[in-house]
Write a structure and sequence with these properties.
By secondary structure, the protein is α/β, with parallel strands linked by helices. It has 10 helices and 11 strands. The strands form 3 sheets. Strands 3-4-5-8-9-10-11 form a 7-stranded parallel beta sheet, with helices on one face. Strands 1-2 form a two-stranded antiparallel ribbon. The longest helix is centred in the last third of the chain and has 16 residues. The structure holds NADP nicotinamide-adenine-dinucleotide phosphate. The site of NADP nicotinamide-adenine-dinucleotide phosphate (NAP) has 28 residues, from helix 9. NADP nicotinamide-adenine-dinucleotide phosphate binds next to helix 9.
């Protein structure tokens, strides 16, 4: 079994977590809606992740809705002391599987209570305020009033630490005037590099940057260059994409998502994959290649 500590650890809220974690979104049904295609496999993936040493799981009550949180509870409760579960609030699902912003004080408060109930905890480890803006890209605008609602729930003891998702650097700075921000979760991967400067700025401040869609999301990255480099290393393209993120900056924490035990194992093995400077330079071509196609 791969030693996940090979990729190092980084502070996340009150803990120092392994940089290779797990994202639970893919455990819900198609379109992140409804029950998993195989309930037992979903539980097995969660248990295998933790058995392999994963101590950081990303989730939300709007996955399913309620499905992934309930699976996490069924598979892992009572939770190991070292496990950090990061959830997010800011949206609800329609009966037609749509994703709808839910960012009023009442909606944010109710989402925190849903997460507490469905995860079966008295206080949530980390809650990210997920700004809806454009769907997977941030857009400017004040988030202070919304973040203050979560800061109030933190003061009440319902949330231990706060983070942000789908935000700009200016929004991070605005939130930091209200309460400590322990992590930022934005869209970022080998070919989606808009946050390069933000990753580094957060690193200077000791704040974790957690890319969502680390493998490219619902349609994982496909690139001839990436496949060629992976073959040369005796690794898979997904492992190289994850190793690249791990080497990109020490404050990057990974939460690759999968519903499959074999993909989980494959992804966790990337914690031990070291890329040379030459390989990293060659991987810059993947980004260029995707912009052309
Ligand atoms: N804050 C936000 O707005 C936001 C948005 C999206 C996601 N997230 C979080 O980020 C996590 C990661 O994002 P994600 O799951 O959407 O995208 P991802 O990790 O980039 O990729 C997941 C996709 O890749 C496939 N996959 C995983 N491992 C693979 C492998 N080794 N080989 C081939 N295919 C593989 C998965 O399918 P299989 O199930 O078949 O493996 C799934 O289709 C989520 O789980 C969620 O917790 C947050």
């Amino acid at each position: 079994m791969t030693d996940l500590t090979k990729a190092g650890l980084y502070p996340l809220g009150g803990a120092k977590v392994k940089r290779m974690g797990y994202g639970a979104m893919q455990l819900a049904g198609p379109g992140v809606f409804g029950p998993p295609k195989d309930h037992d496999t979903a539980l097995a993936v969660l248990r295998a992740a933790v058995a392999a040493g994963v101590d950081h799981i990303d989730t939300s009550d709007f996955y399913g809705p309620h499905v992934t949180n309930r699976l996490i509870r069924e598979a892992l409760h009572p939770y190991p002391a070292e496990l950090t579960i990061v959830t997010k609030v800011g949206a609800v699902r329609g009966a037609d599987a749509s994703w709808n912003p839910a960012q009023s004080p009442a909606e944010l408060t109710s989402a925190v209570h849903d997460n507490l109930r469905n995860l079966g905890v008295d206080a949530l480890d980390v809650v990210n305020l997920r700004i809806t803006g454009d769907i997977h890209e941030p857009s400017e605008g004040s988030i202070g009033a919304r973040f203050a609602v979560l800061a109030d729930l933190q003061r009440q003891g319902l949330i231990k630490h706060l983070g942000l998702s789908n935000v700009t650097a200016a929004q991070v700075a605005e939130a930091q005037q209200i309460a400590e921000v322990v992590c930022v979760q934005n869209h970022y991967n080998l070919v989606h590099r808009e946050d390069d400067a933000l990753v580094d700025e957060l690193g200077r401040q000791g704040i974790a940057y957690v890319p969502f869609f680390p493998l490219g999301g619902f349609t994982p990255l496909q690139s001839e260059t990436l496949s060629r480099i992976a073959a040369k290393l005796g690794a898979t393209p997904m492992q190289v994409a994850l190793a690249w993120l791990l080497q990109r900056a020490p404050n990057i924490l990974l939460i690759p998502g999968t519903s499959s035990l074999s993909h989980l194992r494959e992804n966790l093995e990337a914690a031990a994959l070291v890329l040379t400077d030459e390989t990293i330079a060659a991987l810059e071509n993947v980004s260029a290649e995707q912009k052309v196609t």
